[in-house]
Every structure is written in structure tokens, then in C-alpha cells.
Amino acid sequence: MADGGGLDGGPATAYPGDAEVTDGFELAGVPDAFQRLWTPHRLAYIKGGQEQVTSEQTCPFCRAPQLGDEESLIVHRGTHAFVLLNLFPYNAGHLLVCPYRHVPDYTDIDEAETAEIAALTQTAMRVLRSVSNPSGFNLGMNQGVTGGAGIAAHLHQHVVPRWGGDGNFLPIIAQTKAITQTLGEVREQVAHAWPSAGDTPGPVA
Asked: How far apart are CA 66 and CA 57, in angstroms?
């Protein structure tokens, strides 16, 4: 069935899968000014995202190091932790720092893991500054399902680069992000700029 019309007052828009009304009556509903973006495929993520990670064998953060860097979006492999791009980035360059061990809580990691995750987070910030010159960052770990963790079973630190104006009406009102680069392009830039041991990151040529 069509919605209540476009924001510009134009004719209603039919969507794929809408039932055709041919017997003289409309189905129940109150027309309004909103367009609908139907995303039924998201229901599987909303309802079963956490339940799908039941062990190390079903954890994407455990699987990633077993794949090649390009396939897994890994930009750096350390001794106790690694860094990869978020498959669902808030901004281009949104990185995740993860321990190799499948542990859920910040209190579960040992001193060596804690130190390396902190050091990799600092390096990630330096690399992103050299690659894309963000004016700020969001750093954080969401702990547990109720704390907002998308995958609560495996600890991960978010490193999100921020620019003035990136929180415009699209993400705030429309819940939509405009990402200006592909994940492959960003991974290549960040991995190329990641310093070798003893080096400091410089601009990408």
C-alpha cells in the first residue's frame, strides 16, 4: 500500500511488496508526511545479533585474525591485540581495538593486554590524524548488552574520528550516515600509515 504522500506534497509512493488495493477500500492507517524506508533484513540483527555469538567459533572478532588483512579489514596485528575497521562505521576510519582472547569484560584482560590495547588506541588516533585530520575523537567500550555492546561476548575498544558538522540532521533525525570512502580504501590508507616498531606515523603519500 502507498504511504501518505511525499514530503513535498506530491503523490503517494508505492513500495515493492505493497499490497494492491483493487476492491474499493484502503487498509487501516492514518496518512502522514513521512516517507518509510523498509528494512526488514535488519530484524535478524535486532533480534538475534547477540544470540548468534555463542562461542569463539561464532564470534566475528575471533574469526577475523584467521583471515587475511584485506578480507577481515585488519589494519594492524599486535602481540596481544589487533586493530580493524568497524564493518558498520559511524564515520570513515571508525576502528576497533580487540584482544585476541575471547573475553567480554574490561576486568577480564591482564596487564599485558591492557597496556597493548591502550598503546594501540593511542597509535590509532595518531594514524587517523595523519590520514584524515579529524578534529576530535570518541573513545569507548560498551560493556554488556544493556551497556550497548553490539557484540558483548568479545571486548572491543571503539576509536571514532570526528569532524565538525558530522553530527548533522542525517544521523540525528534520519538515522543515516553518509560515509565518503569505501572500507577497502580506508583500510589501505590506515594500514599503510600504521608505523613499524619504533616509528611514528606520517602522512600517506
From this structure: 11
What is the separation of C-alpha 124 from the centre of its chain, rounded to a whole number of angstroms? 16
Domain annotation covers residue 187: yes
Residue at 86 is within a domain: yes
pLDDT score at 4: 43
CATH of the domain at 133: 3.30.428.10
CA–CA gap between residue 189 and residue 73 (Å, rounded): 12
* Count of the separate structural domains present in the chain: 1
- Smallest Cα–Cα separation from 150: which of 62, 64, 45, 71? 45
Query: Could you give the 3-state DSSP secondary structure of residue 162?
Result: strand
| pLDDT(190) > 90 | yes
Catalytic residues: 156
* DSSP three-state, residue 156: coil
Place of cell 587475511: 68
24, 81, 82, 117 from 156: Cα distances, Å: 55, 10, 10, 9
